[in-house]
User: Fold these one by one.
Assistant:
Number 1:
Amino acid sequence: MSVQQLQSQLRVALSSTVFGMDKILPLVTIAVVARGHILLEAYPGLGKTLFARALAKALGGSFGRIQCTADLMPSDMTGVHVFNDESRRFELIEGPLFADVVLVDEINRTGPKTQSAMLQAMEERAITIDREHYLLAPDFLVIATQNPHDFEGTYPLPESQIDRFLMKIQLDYPEADDEIEVLRSYDRASSRYEDKVSGISSIDNTLITAARAEADQVHVAPAIYEFARSIAVATRQSRDVDLGLSTRGLLALMTSARVAAAMDRKDHVTPDHVKTIAPFVIAHRLLPAADALLAGEDPMTLTMRLLRDVPVPRTEPEAG
């Protein structure tokens, strides 16, 4: 019940500040419990920054924001050592990566060198500055936003970095009721996003800990592991895919499926849990072959087709 309670409390905490995010909230909850990073693709102006700032407040953590540009340098994210005349020593001026929740806005507008500089932070929750090693927040969470690739001035993300994102979520324009609520809440000149965010109550951190413990106790039958690996093998052997699911991606799939099962109040993972979460975990990791792209297939349609082709095992829940 802890995972469901966490999702419910996040919904309540964010309900008066951000609107139209209910569809992605279960996925965000899974990412928080699984300690995974999120790649959020959406057009500009849909409230991504406000959502990330509000989520940080709800989780009781600090918020950092990195606006990516073509000339962004790695030190703009990590921070720099500056000589202090009084102490006669170099001191670290921390960059935004030292926050608990970091919004990396328009990540595909900065070059590959700077994108790659985030790999250590995302994988190890640590960074190295001038040969010194610094630990980041224990629950360090990156929410990177990405414009659609047909926007001018964007760069494709390196495959190694894409693999560090637990899942990719596509955010569409809000429904009519949600968009009207945005207008009601923020159309006054005196309206301030900061005031709304500051009023959000933080969730007790023990609930997040309990949610993780609950997900860890979810049972996974051998047939489910074999099913998940069969999906990975299908992506690797498909002639329509040049780069299939890595072992890291397969691990992300199973970790997410565990949390999804707990959210569903189940004590075991079913094939449906794997198949439901798979598109968000797998699609962004696939590199379609040129012929598949010419045929009009994108990573998501490829993923859905491959999922349909992999035989689903008949499993009975076993004692955990």
Number 2:
Amino acid sequence: MLASDALACSSCGRLVYADQLEQIANRARQLAALGQLQLARDHWAAALQLLPDSPERRGVQREIERLDVRMAPPTAVRLRESRIKAVAAPLLAKLVFPVSLLAFMGVYWSLLGWWFAVGITASVLLHEMGHYLTVRHFGFKAELPTFLPGFGAFVRWTGGNVDPGVRALISLAGPLFGFLSGLLAYLLFRETGRQVWLAVAEFAGWLNLLNLTPVSIFDGGAAMNALGREQRIAVLIFSVVFFFLLHDYLFLILAGGTLYRLSTRDLPPEPQKYGLAAYFIALAAANGLLSWYCSHQGYSFFSRF
């Protein structure tokens, strides 16, 4: 026979209120997961009243101690740390842009010289600012570009339920501004006669044409999401024609990517009008012609490799 106030069997050690304790423990864990820490602590404290001196009791005491730590008001040290983080986080975010830009420029400077590094960094910056300004134009939040030395750059932005057409315009703004950067470099070449600007113009046209490849990692991927089957066929025909006209294999890559997107089941339920497809094609033609024309001026950037 167990004593009326016994909490465990003296012979086998079984807890008298084992089933009730299990229910209390499950409820306490659920409350803690929901953030109701005081209620969770109250449940654990109630469980203590049903436990003898045992490993289970010590386990419950540890749960109460952990909840006490979580509920404790922040100390002066923690408050100071939180203030430092609040000040440092925005500062670090602002430093990402200039520091990554300088690192990006440094990589090209070490490989190809100072002027080309300046030119290509400015071109990539203008490309990314096209995205940034268009995002802001549509009322979304955006951060200044982050550069990845030796690779490229990107703009972080946030927006919920963005229309595919709007997303396409944001994506195509990069190649548009990139083309303008190449055109500016070509005008500098005409004014100064320095072949480095011709190389920058050629590279800008080539890079922005590559960026129109309609797969996910490129700007063309997001733009293609808004185009229907007929519009994609139009891009495919254009790409094949320009490949035979200019003998630029980037157009063959563009055609291959478009052919792939014709085979996928990602056609938009409401395709954009043909104006977006014409915009896509015009950007590809402009950047391709810029790269081709500059490469036929007696000096080609790619001849250096």
Number 3:
Amino acid sequence: MTPGMDRARLLRRAGIPVAAAAMLGGAAHAASPQGALRGHPRWRFTFINHATTNPFFVPTRYGIADAAAFFGVASEWAGSERSDVGEMAGAMRRAID
């Protein structure tokens, strides 16, 4: 990434060629990532992890947040801080509900 370029700016710039290709291909309604999801309810993704506070997963959390913002969907990071199976199962039940 170049100096002065944050992730959000990079994602916006990367989306321009995709949008142009979609419009040239006759799919003007899909010119934005949100256009590809047209006709659907607002999507919500929950990511269940066995170690929610482990620094190893920080890039994963940023990637999830970036993808959710790019596509206009909601996301949640849940699971267990201590790899407790009961906590992970509870998080999964809440996500499904």
